[in-house]
Amino acid sequence: MKKITIFCLFFFAHVAASEVKNFLIFGARGWIGQKIVGIITQQGHNAICAQSRLENRQDIINEIEKTKPHYIINSAGITGTPNVDWCETHKAETLRTNVIGTLNLADICYMYNIHLTNISTGCIYEYDEKHPLGSGIGFTEEEAPNFDASFYSKTKIKLEELLLEYPNVLNLRVKMPLSTELNKGFIGKIIHYKKIINVPNSLCVLDDLLPCAVDMTLREIKGNYNFVNPGAMSHSEILDLYKKYLAPDHTYESFSFEEQNKVITTRRSNAELSASKLLKLYPDVPHIKDSIINIFQKIKNNQLF
Ligand SMILES: NC(=O)c1ccc[n+]([C@@H]2O[C@H](COP(=O)([O-])OP(=O)(O)OC[C@H]3O[C@@H](n4cnc5c(N)ncnc54)[C@H](OP(=O)(O)O)[C@@H]3O)[C@@H](O)[C@H]2O)c1
Known about the structure:
six-stranded parallel sheet, 12 helices, binds NADP nicotinamide-adenine-dinucleotide phosphate, Rossmann fold, single chain
């Protein structure tokens, strides 16, 4: 019995040698890219960290010729430092990576007949009359984006419009990502803010969804997907769970959109996205609230992603 268990564990953790695939990863040193590399490696495939910059076409071609990838995943992108406000004053740099560079990569993948998975953003919608705040009616992939108030979001909308014309592309719309690495991502941001706005949003728990991204790549799934857990949570609902599970002494205050707009350059996207299309492929992706509780419990028990 013991022998069978050991064999099964080995079998599920590693693919057979003949099935090992080469993944070329752009943005492999970034937050999301590093996690993707970890998952691919853990599964027994080869994760090759791309050296070329997205805007340097010939370098990408040379790298593909050299590494012969079966799949390419792009998690390179400009998000701005310390935040997306940076993009307002660095428009050409943002455009060159988020639009021109990413299209460049998609075009080369098309020429080489390689499937491309692109990590993009769901921050391209905001609540409106058809999708009122708190209604639970999420924007679907078929509905046109309605939030381009920040230059960052604008670049991602322009990109999507053209990128999805390529038949070899899967576009994953990550929104407000978080993981057990609490110093990064959405929770990492809001636990350091003295004041928060309080509005429900869709969120992407990377621990749940990045393994799906790798699986979707292996299955060569194409098209556009809202890459979020089902449901939505507000900033204070999340912070109340943070207090309950990890930091009982944590305090925060709420402020209005008007007050928030005084301390940021551009408005932020607040919306619920429908996860229905993704759930048809992965029905076990947990509701956001269950997943966040699970994240906090893992941190408490030191089981980090
Ligand atoms: N983090 C979020 O809150 C969030 C939310 C939704 C969607 N996303 C999307 O997810 C993607 C990854 O985000 P992340 O949080 O992992 O960002 P990150 O930690 O800043 O990593 C981005 C990576 O992209 C690389 N990069 C930037 N411009 C490049 C170029 N022209 N050519 C090649 N590599 C380039 C960076 O390398 P260098 O440092 O060497 O430039 C870095 O390794 C982005 O497209 C972002 O829009 C992120």
